[in-house]
């Protein structure tokens, strides 16, 4: 046989064999398609694909005060992803992305051969489209990596990838990928990752930062710079080399970037909300309305009336006040020691160490040494020093307070030249407290604190705790009296008095706080000095049912028994309802329904619900003004009068509240625009401290909050506001000086207004 004829014969045999192989491949492919056709997803569903994104809660100034999310994600368009990021991700994950049809047939074939020979885990890198298929359809494709399940997963992944490539363009696929994938620390999508690690939008990242982000993708929890700067740097350098090989950058540019350190500017977790208790109340309300999935993944935008500046002032004032009072009870031994837990002093990292501490901040610290009367602590990478003055309040020696390995709280002081800092020893308070601030004119909740620490307890004492209100109840008694014809100048008796308590009951004999009696005094002075006997006498004369009608009109729903002792605070109430009731006095008797939520919009901006102020003329405007002036007198001349409140030089009114056994201390006060309520106590009722009156412990916290508020308002207003005075309020002379009256009730000697 001649050589040419031999070659022809071999050619025919090869052609026939190739046809058989092709037929087998096509048949196998058809079989695979047929076998998995029922399991594959409808790719057209991606036309309406909308990945879960962060729901944001906004304050009245438009700033973010909190978030709800299972995945921290912000959606971006292809145009928002800069070329440097696109090139870095493509080089790192799929250099042929712009050329292939969704899969690498040769690489998949090689992976299959290795899989059969090695009988182990399937090697081979998936394309970006295959990764997207796995991320988008986990129920269909799965995440199995080894054995037969791994091979089936690869086949399904490839089939879905081919369908995705057939339906969508490369930019669309790449954008879906960048918005979907995880980047560690609960960040999903390139925008959230850029902000998390570098504190900037994806549009602003540098080459170095883009390579760092791309390098994380294979194992983001391991390769992110918060977990390991060393591993993250190694991966970044790999990406830079790949980008140079793909001609996106030059070799020199790659080497220059590799010489730079990775500098993070974000933080590994979102900052805690400025108003966590309000946020929790919102979450409960929204989940009931829309369901948890919509709340956590729907990208809602929720507007509240929260004033972030006022909220921070309240947070600071309450925390400082509680810590000051707690120190009076002495120092408590630290509850945790990491040496006892067999952990290293050098490598220990506290979850709160997300930043270098700043002066005035209270933060957890690790005791590293106690020597010569000085306690040395570590906060992150910085060392702090607590000298004798820093723990003098404990009245104990340093060696008796703490030991190496203890976790304590410190208040950061001045920085030292060596990079360290001075500090004072502190401790988390066991005393609880709550604050509510409301806009008198709209009812919007401006600030809310439900306890000393949201981490420790999510119970919202501002809304859920019903506590004895003490003398806070007295203004309702005096309001009923004003409506019944009494005036601020009416004479009341502060003398020992017995009242009939009903059949079979001993007489009720109320006592004043100081166990003294002042005799005859004006109604104004009786309220200013918070005398108990005159208040009970008024309630007895007016009748409990008549008096109790007024707190009901002002929105108090907590049951109020018809006992005379209710006049001086034997009944219970919540801080929110009491603050809301008081807000009607400076608002001309109009009570606004408390507004926690203003409006809710979906991710497209469509309004889902909206709440507007709901006014209710609860009491007469003239009576409300008289009570406002009486409470103004409390701050000027009564139980709330002191140098700090006087220094504010601002129109203020308010009332203290204290229970007989000092278990609850209150102060609720207002100016023409806002009302702020403060409560202090223990969850299990016990004495706060001896003589812990509302004046002594709650008023200073209220004053600190109002000091910040008044300071802001002075810069916004040319002149201080005034309490709105109805036209039928007149001023007349009395033996005790000028006084306000409702027209027609004034004595002779009225003077011009």
List its salient traits.
753 residues, 24 helices, elongated, five-stranded mixed beta sheet, five-stranded mixed β-barrel, 16% strand, 25 strands, alpha+beta, disordered C terminus
Structural description of this entry:
- The chain is an alpha+beta fold and 753 residues long.
- Helix content is 38%, strand content 16%.
- It has 24 helices and 25 strands.
- It starts with a helix and ends in an 11-residue tail after the last strand.
Euclidean distance between termini CA atoms: 133 Å
Order of strands in the sheet with the most strands? 2-1-5-18-19
Biggest beta sheet summary: 5 strands, mixed
Q: Helical proportion?
A: 25-40%
Estimate the mean pLDDT confidence: 89
What percent strand?
A: 15-25%
Give the low-confidence spans: 21-38, 119-124, 749-753
Number-wise, the strands total 25
User: Given the helix and strand composition, which structural class is it?
Assistant: alpha+beta
| Radius of gyration based on Cα positions | 36 Å
Net shape: elongated
Strand and helix layout:
Elements: H1 3-36, E1 55-58, E2 64-68, E3 72-73, H2 83-93, H3 105-118, H4 128-136, H5 138-141, H6 147-167, H7 170-180, E4 187-188, H8 190-198, H9 207-216, H10 220-223, H11 229-245, H12 251-258, H13 276-290, H14 292-297, E5 301-303, H15 308-327, E6 362-371, E7 374-379, E8 382-386, H16 398-401, E9 407-415, E10 421-426, E11 432-439, E12 445-449, E13 467-468, H17 474-483, E14 491-494, E15 519-522, H18 523-528, H19 532-542, H20 544-553, E16 572-573, H21 575-582, E17 590-592, E18 599-601, E19 607-610, E20 615-617, H22 621-637, H23 643-648, E21 653-658, E22 664-670, E23 674-681, H24 694-716, E24 729-734, E25 737-742
């Amino acid at each position: 046989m001649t050589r040419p004829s031999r070659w022809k014969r071999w050619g025919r045999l090869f052609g026939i064999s190739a046809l058989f192989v092709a037929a087998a491949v096509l048949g196998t492919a058809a079989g695979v398609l047929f076998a998995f056709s029922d399991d594959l997803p409808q790719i057209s569903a991606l036309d309406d694909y909308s990945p879960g994104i962060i729901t944001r809660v906004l304050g009245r100034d438009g700033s973010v005060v909190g978030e709800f999310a299972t995945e921290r994600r912000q959606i971006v368009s292809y145009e928002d992803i800069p070329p440097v990021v696109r090139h870095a991700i493509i080089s790192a994950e799929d250099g042929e992305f712009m050329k292939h049809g969704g899969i690498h047939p040769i690489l998949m074939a090689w992976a299959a051969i290795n899989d059969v020979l090695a009988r182990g885990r399937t090697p081979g890198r998936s394309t970006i489209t295959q990764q997207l298929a796995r991320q988008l359809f986990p129920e269909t494709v799965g995440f199995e990596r080894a054995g037969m399940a791994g091979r089936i997963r690869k086949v399904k992944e490839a089939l879905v990838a081919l369908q995705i490539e057939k339906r969508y363009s490369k930019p669309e696929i790449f954008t879906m990928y960048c918005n979907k994938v995880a980047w560690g620390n609960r960040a999903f999508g390139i925008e959230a990752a850029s902000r998390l690690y570098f504190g900037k939008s994806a549009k602003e990242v540098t080459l170095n930062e883009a390579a760092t982000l791309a390098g994380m993708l294979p194992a983001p929890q391991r390769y992110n710079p918060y977990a390991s700067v060393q591993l993250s740097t190694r991966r970044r350098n790999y990406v830079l080399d790949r980008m140079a090989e793909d001609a996106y950058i030059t070799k020199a540019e790659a080497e220059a970037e590799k010489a730079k350190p990775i500098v993070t500017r974000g933080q590994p977790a979102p900052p805690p909300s400025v108003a966590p208790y309000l946020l929790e109340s919102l979450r409960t309300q929204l989940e009931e309305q829309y369901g948890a999935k919509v709340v956590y993944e729907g990208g809602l935008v929720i507007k509240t009336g929260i004033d972030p500046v006022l909220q921070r002032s309240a947070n600071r004032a309450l925390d400082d006040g509680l810590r000051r009072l707690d120190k009076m009870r002495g120092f408590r031994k630290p509850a945790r020691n990491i040496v006892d837990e067999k952990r290293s002093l050098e490598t220990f990292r506290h979850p709160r160490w997300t930043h270098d501490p700043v002066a005035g901040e209270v933060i957890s610290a690790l005791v590293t040494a106690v020597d010569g009367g000085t306690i040395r602590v570590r906060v992150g990478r910085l060392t702090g020093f607590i000298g004798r003055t820093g723990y003098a309040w404990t009245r104990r020696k340093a060696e008796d307070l703490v030991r190496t390995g203890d976790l304590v709280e410190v208040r950061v002081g001045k920085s030292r030249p060596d990079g360290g800092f001075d500090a004072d020893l502190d401790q988390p308070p066991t005393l609880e407290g709550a604050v509510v601030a409301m806009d008198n004119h709209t009812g919007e909740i401006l600030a809310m604190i439900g306890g000393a620490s949201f981490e420790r307890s999510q119970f919202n004492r501002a809304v859920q705790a019903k506590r004895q209100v003490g003398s806070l109840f007295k203004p309702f008694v005096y309001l009923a009296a004003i409506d019944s014809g009494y005036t601020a100048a009416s004479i009341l008796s502060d003398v020992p008095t017995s009242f009939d308590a009903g059949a079979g009951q001993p007489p009720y004999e109320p006592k004043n706080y100081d166990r003294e009696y002042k005799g005859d005094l004006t109604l104004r002075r009786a309220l200013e000095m918070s005398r108990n006997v005159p208040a009970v006498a008024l309630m007895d004369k007016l009748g409990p049912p008549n008096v109790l009608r007024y707190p009901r009109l002002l929105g108090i729903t907590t049951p109020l028994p018809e006992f005379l002792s209710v006049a001086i605070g034997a009944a219970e109430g919540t801080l929110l309802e009491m603050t809301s009731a008081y807000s009607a006095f400076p608002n001309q008797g109009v009570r606004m329904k408390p507004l926690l939520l203003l409006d809710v919009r979906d991710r497209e901006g469509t309004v889902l619900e909206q709440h507007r102020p709901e006014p209710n003329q609860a009491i007469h405007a003239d009576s409300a003004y008289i009570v406002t002036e009486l409470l103004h007198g409390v701050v000027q001349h009564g139980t709330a009068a002191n140098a700090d409140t006087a220094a504010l030089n601002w129109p203020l009114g308010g009332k203290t509240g204290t229970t007989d056994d000092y278990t609850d201390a209150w102060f609720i006060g207002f100016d023409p625009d806002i009302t702020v309520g403060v409560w202090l106590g223990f969850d299990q009722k016990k004495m706060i401290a001896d003589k812990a009156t509302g004046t002594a412990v709650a008023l200073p916290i209220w004053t600190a909050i109002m000091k910040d508020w008044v300071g802001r308002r002075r810069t916004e207003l040319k002149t201080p506001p005034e309490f709105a005075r109805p036209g039928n309020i007149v001023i007349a002379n009395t033996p005790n000086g000028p006084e306000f009256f409702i027209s027609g009730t004034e004595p002779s000697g009225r003077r011009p207004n």
